[in-house]
Each structure stands twice: as C-alpha cells, then as structure tokens.
Amino acid sequence: MKHLILSAALTAAALCAPLAALADGKTHHVAVHVDQNDPQVLNMALNNVQNLTKYYESQGDTAIVEVVAYGPGLMMYVKDKSPVAERIKAMAMESDNVSFAACGNTLKAMNAKAGQEVALLEEATVVPSGVVRLVELQEAGYTYIRP
In the CATH scheme, what is the homologous superfamily, with its name and number, of domain 26-145? Predict the structure, then answer.
C-alpha cells in the first residue's frame, strides 16, 4: 500500500512539474542600444523587442526591456519627427515591461541647437546620460543588444 501511495504521489508530482515551471518562469532583462537615426535600424530595434518579448512569453517567461537612445538615435523619440512613433505608442500600451529611455545629454544639445525645447514622445523617460544608463543596466545584469 505504501508503494502505491508513493507511486501515485510521484506520478502527480511529475505531471504537475511542467505547470509549476510555467508558473515560475524566468525573468530576462534586456537593454537595447539605439544610436543611429536610420528608420531601418529603429524598426529593427523595435522588431527585436517585439520578437524577444513574444518568444519569452510563449515560453512562460517574462522579458523586461529598456530601449536606450542617444546621439542621432534620440530622433526615435522626437515628437512629430520620429519615424517609429506609432510603434512606440502601441508597444508602451501593450506592455508594462517595455520602457524607453532618452539621453538627457543629447536632448540638452538638441535644445541648444534648436534654440528651444525639443518635445519628446510621452513614452520616453529622460535619463541623465544614455551611455551611463546602458552601463547601469549591464551592471544590474541586463543583456546588451545593439541592432
């Protein structure tokens, strides 16, 4: 009788293990670096984000992604000029796990050159320095991606 109970318990545990693994999915942290003002590169970066978040979701995992833009890449966040503004808005609405960081140093230089404040998409959060932000994310264990 003990063997029957033990066998039933082991069978139940084996059947429940895959479900428990899904419930305890891994969390992946990814930093995506954008420093070019090329619509192909901007779209590739966003494609990378969408593809990896979908993949990990299908595996029962979670992906936390931060897209960090500086230099010419900051144009991806400039209101009324970004070629990917609609995609960024849609992605921000679809997922709380995707964020967009804008380099404060680059923005300051753009403001000075324009002689006025350059408006960014509301989805972008200004960080003091894009390069420093990438370093911080990598030091925190984020995987670095550059399309």
Answer: DsrEFH-like (3.40.1260.10)
pLDDT digits (tens, 9 = 90+) for 66-107: 999 999 999 999 999 999 999 999 999 999 999 999 999 999
Q: How far is 4 from 47, CA to CA, in rounded Å?
A: 52
Alpha helices (H) along the chain? 2-23, 39-58, 85-94, 104-114, 130-139
Whether the CB-CB separation of 74 and 102 falls below 8 Å is answered with yes
Question: In DSSP terms, which residues pair with 127 in a beta bridge?
Answer: 103
* Pair of tokens at residue 141: 């264990």
For the whole model, what pTM was predicted?
A: 0.83
Q: Quote the CA–CA distance of 79 and 54 in Å, as a whole number.
A: 27
